[in-house]
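re: ur question from earlier - yeah i can do the single chain one, its not a big deal. heres the input i used so u can compare w yours
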Amino acid sequence: MSGYILRKLPENDQHPDNGDGAVSRHHAIIQYLPTFAAVMKKALIQMHLAVLLWGFTGVLGRAISLDAPILVWYRMLLTAIFVAVILYVRKEWVSIPRKHLMLMALIGILMGLHWVAFYGSIKLANVSIALVCLSTASIFTPLVDPIINRGKHDFKELLLGSLAIIGVYLIYRFQQFYGWGILAGIIAALLSSVFTVFNKQIAAQYPARTMVFYEMSTGWAFITLLIPIYLHYKPETQLIPMVTADWVHNDWIWLVVLSLCCTVWAQSLSLNALKKLSSFTATLSVNLEPVYGILLAFIFYNENREIIFIDGTEKLNGGFLAGMGLILLSVVLQMLRVLLPGYMPSKKNAEIKN
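and the output i got, formated as tokens:
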């Protein structure tokens, strides 16, 4: 019950036979257990709702008709506007030194490129392939961290990374027609690992919404500079979101949902939940994002017929299942290494996290 303070009971509630307060403390704990359970239940629901909303980003990426760079341009713009309104109304603006502003700008650029690669993977393959590849980010992060922070690699983490790479190869080996989508998904995972490591350096120093605003704004500006180059090679690209009477195919609706619900609201839910949940519960919940996303893709787009079975037959696609199994195994093993008491991060990494 770390972080919860039990209030002292009134004097007339003290046990009459002794003055050590043991029985009173017992009564206090019994009294506040229902409140504690209710708070933890609410926090767990908030965290899983946030993870579910993050899982929806893949489904929405497939639903929106825009190409990946244009989709990301709108998502970052709308998210920056929504967050700016919240910061203005709540008067939460915080001044940031130039050095950290530059780092946030770099993170925003990396995040923008990450989203372009992620949604590109969805467009080139499908939601399930993109999310399976993106799940390798938790393996790449401990490999990238020592490079950026000049630390030493852990041999066990290198082995887990190799296991994930073998899993990706198996998926590619038996799904070669998704080759470009798989490559884009791996690039998205690597970029996610890099900006995650940079984010850790300043995450504890500033409010999350302030960081999101600057990162979204700079990422949007960078994507704006890239769009003319993209249009040079693809001049037929659709720039305006589709508007139809059928709300299911209305891009504006899904862009707003993607930006407001799956980004701003999901972040708020996760931040509130993290105040109450242990790191184990939070990490375990966040690692369910690809699972939720793939299940949603199965439900909305019947992608299980595309990847689990071969060519629409009833024959299982052993290569995909084996590859996905190896990736999930590497992710679970890495998560257990981090969360079990015996795991000790390097001194350099420990300083960054603090």
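DSSP finds 14 helices and no strands in the chain. not sure if urs matches, ping me
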